[in-house]
TrEMBL record:
PANTHER family per the UniProt record, alphabetical: DNA ADENINE METHYLTRANSFERASE, PHAGE_INTEGRASE DOMAIN-CONTAINING PROTEIN
Single GO MF annotation: DNA binding
Protein name per UniProt: Uncharacterized protein
GO BP: DNA integration; DNA recombination
Length: 425
């Protein structure tokens, strides 16, 4: 399907992709019991729609568009589209297999299913009927090379090269430097650190990180200090948020130094985005704006070009999270600690293990001989706690207890947690 313009219909008004699940209404809805009104049903439908993140609703809305365009082309009546016959859904899936990535095919299927669920329409398709089609989508996409290429990882050298190209007198560059270094060393997602766009309603105090969400924690026994960012909303914790940790680093990619520069130059205030910065228009008038994902990626692309970094890496913000993960693993940090640092609930972080032979090699070496012959040294780096303490904790405790032990060793402090303040000069 090349033309994705649906036929005009009172059931499918023109709207954003994210709003299609709610505003595109099936022509035939299940009858209501006598005690339930249409107003009640509308409220239930709206509540169901808001159970899904806006970005996910947008993806599902794209799948719903494809489904209805397919039905338009094959002249499927509106009353046959919901509840859709199982063979109709399978025919729709078969039509897009080979034209989209496997993940896109799966998402579009879930979009049509979610549309049924939100409006209380029965879903007639059994999961066993879609399994072969989804498997075919994976196989054909692999053979055709459809889908996103494997994201390469940024290295510390790449990050330092990027930081050297930035101008410390330009507010955007200073804000970007803090954001890019905190994202790398905090193994964070770019979406957790930036706003969606620069529209007037893109920044939400209840969703986006602000200066009051930054604090410092000390461990006097380990003589170490950790900076904590707490976005109110993250991918894995959309209602409570999560802590993002990073410590002082050596060289120009130090996130603590970048944070101090940003606070002193851009002076972010409570109630505005942490990475807010000053922008001047053509007439020299200054306005403040948050750091959007588009501006971040564009600045990252330009910085990569200025630093001579491969363009394949440049535009990929997620390569920062992959690079931070790889760097900690190469330093000998145990896998479970890295998993906790990156806030992965499952084992998906294993897909980030680029250069896996280099990462695993230290664990495969023969034990040191008794005569004390030298072994290949680990990468020295003072801010990280000794590996022996982590290994001891992880060998004796289960996963949950290990997290608590790590908190005590590297996060919890004998001093109370206080908001971070820039150093006095």
């Amino acid at each position: 399907m090349t033309d994705l313009t649906p036929l005009e219909s009172i059931y499918r008004p023109h709207c954003r992709a994210a709003d299609r699940l709610l505003l595109w209404i099936p022509s035939t809805l299940p009858p209501l019991p006598p005690v339930i009104t249409e107003e009640m049903r509308a409220r239930i439908t709206e509540a169901r729609a808001h159970s899904i993140a806006d970005s996910t609703r947008g993806t599902y809305g794209s799948g719903l568009l494809l489904f209805h365009v397919y039905c338009d082309v094959h002249r499927i009546p509106d009353d046959q589209r919901a509840p859709a016959h199982s063979l109709l859904i399978q025919a729709f899936l078969a039509s897009i297999v080979g034209g989209y990535s496997a993940s896109a095919v799966s998402n579009y299927l879930h979009g049509v299913k979610t549309w049924h669920t939100i409006h209380g329409v029965p879903w007639l398709l059994d999961s066993g009927e879609t399994t072969p089609l989804l498997a075919a989508a994976k196989r054909i996409a692999r053979d055709k090379g459809i889908g996103k290429p494997e994201r390469p990882a940024f290295t510390v050298d790449d990050l330092e090269a990027i930081c050297r190209t930035l101008d410390p007198t330009v507010p955007l560059d200073v804000s970007f430097k803090f954001c890019v270094t905190a994202t790398f060393w905090g193994t964070a997602r770019v979406k957790e650190m930036t706003v969606v766009n620069l529209s007037s309603d893109s920044f939400h105090p209840q969703r986006h990180i602000q200066i009051q969400h930054v604090s410092e924690r000390w461990d006097h026994k380990m003589k170490s200090q950790v900076t904590v960012l707490h976005p109110p909303v993250t991918k894995a914790a959309p209602f409570t948020g999560e802590d993002i940790f990073f410590a002082q680093q050596l060289g120009p990619s130090d996130p603590k130094g970048a944070m101090a520069e940003h606070v002193l130059l851009n002076d972010p205030q409570p109630g505005e985005h942490l990475f807010s910065h000053v922008v001047r228009d053509s007439q020299g008038r200054a306005t403040r704006r948050p750091l959007s994902r588009t501006i971040f990626i564009n600045r990252l692309r330009q910085a990569c070009a200025d630093a001579g970094i491969d363009a394949v890496i440049g535009p990929k913000g997620h390569s920062l999270r992959i690079g931070g993960t790889l760097e900690y693993l190469l330093r000998g940090v145990p896998f479970l600690v890295v998993k906790y640092q990156g806030r992965w609930a499952g084992d998906s972080f294993g897909t980030y293990l680029r250069k896996h032979a280099v990462v695993i090699a230290p664990y495969l070496q023969a034990p040191a001989p008794r005569d004390g012959a030298a072994q290949p040294p680990r990468t020295p780096f003072p801010p990280l706690p000794p590996d022996e303490l982590f290994d001891a904790a992880l060998s004796e405790l289960d996963r949950e207890e290990a997290r608590e032990a790590l908190d005590r060793m590297s996060v919890e402090s004998e001093s109370p947690t206080v908001p971070w303040l820039p150093p006095i000069r």
